[in-house]
Model the fold of this input.
Amino acid sequence: MGESSHTATQETLGRFPSGTKIATTIHTYTGTEDGPTIYLQAAQHGREVNGAEVLRRLHDRIIDADLAGRVIAVPVADPLTFDHVSYVTPAQLDRINPNMNRVWPGDKNGSVHERMAARLWEHACQADAIIDLHTGSPNMLPHVVALEGHSSSLELGRVFGTKLLLTEQAHTAASDEWHQRSFGGKLRVAAVDEGIPSITPELAYNKQILEDAVETGVRGILNVLRHLDVLDETPEDTGPQTLARNHLGRIVAAESGLFRSNPDITVGSTVQSGTFLGTLYDPTTYEALQTVKATRDGLLYALTQEATIIMGEALANIAEPYELEE
Done:
């Protein structure tokens, strides 16, 4: 077998009012044999840097490998948020759609983010599988999200190999909150709507490169490439995995204040409805503003340790474990 090839090209996604280009780099790894096309991207939300580091390390692993098919990798999908170290772009740049992961597959005649997504979609829509790398918080279990009922996406999530695989209901099966938060414009939803299996790994904390999270991401992508025969290797056994349904089970702050989580509860614990998770205080009067309790039975996969809380922010997330029917 001959050597696979690699190219790195600059692509213009949009323009600033001054005419300066908004550009990013797209890496393409082309094998010497026919095979599937895999689209990988990171940093849709610019402060989520672990995904970009995953793709840098993946580059070192596959640039000299014998590949079948093609791998397309975009380490910085949204340069606007990356340069501002932010989750969404400043309103001055796109006040209509500040969150790029709400506008897929984009619109070439739309807002800045819609146009950027449309340009990247030209690459993503060619894929046989899509992995959109994200990060959560330091107090969240690393996990993969896939659309419930889409078996090929669930299989990618299983192979990726995080200990937790969350399934998300979409469209008519989804809750009102799912629609209110415009989750239909997420890349993984747009991809599945086009028949492309897609997963979203949520690796770990933002703004910092965490070794365990990065290694989980590299191993997960390599496992997917092996599973899809892009790499002629056996996927690594990552051990047991919990499948859980996420009905957007967030517990949010009713008021602003200072939050102290229950020190006896850890992320990854199984909780029952009513389990005490923490207390939100007024830091000046010491008044307890909210006693935070689990709203249902399930797996506590996120519990914030951030102390200063703004009303409406998520304090905890609980998912419901279940088993697929045969």
Summary: The first strand starts at residue 5 and ends at 15.
